[in-house]
């Protein structure tokens, strides 16, 4: 790394551009390798099936989590709706009793 930085400061412009391109391609490859567990290179059919099963399990967990959150939100909305309705019904009853 130190040698490359030294070469970047002392080398010719073409050498610098080649080294920069090489570093960029190395970074791109490492970023792709670390992205969401994506395997690099050729996979055997068995490895591909295992990889797809893992991805499917992850997706199933996410969908299940979303469904649970949605169900909880619907229950909270029902409770708030019932409390609001009860409040207005009681207000109406008290108002009718007061006006008599």
From TrEMBL:
One of its GO terms (cellular component) is peroxisome. Residues 8-98 form the Mff-like domain. Keywords: Coiled coil, Membrane, Mitochondrion, Mitochondrion outer membrane, Peroxisome, Transmembrane, Transmembrane helix. It is a single-pass type IV membrane protein. It comes from the Eukaryota. The chain crosses the membrane at residues 79-96. InterPro entries: Mff-like_dom, Mff/Tango-11. Belongs to the Tango11 family. This is Transport and Golgi organization protein 11 isoform X2. The lineage of its organism: Eukaryota, Metazoa, Ecdysozoa, Arthropoda, Hexapoda. The gene is LOC117567066.
């Amino acid at each position: 790394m130190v040698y490359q930085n030294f070469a970047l400061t002392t080398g010719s412009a073409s050498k610098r551009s080649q080294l920069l391109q090489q570093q960029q391609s190395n970074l791109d490859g490492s970023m792709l390798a670390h992205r969401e567990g994506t395997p690099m290179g050729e996979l055997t059919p068995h490895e591909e099936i295992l990889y797809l099963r893992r991805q499917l399990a992850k997706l199933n967990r996410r969908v299940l989590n979303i469904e649970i959150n949605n169900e909880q939100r619907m229950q909270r909305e029902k409770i708030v709706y019932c409390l609001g309705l009860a409040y207005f019904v009681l207000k109406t009853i008290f108002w009718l009793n007061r006006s008599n």
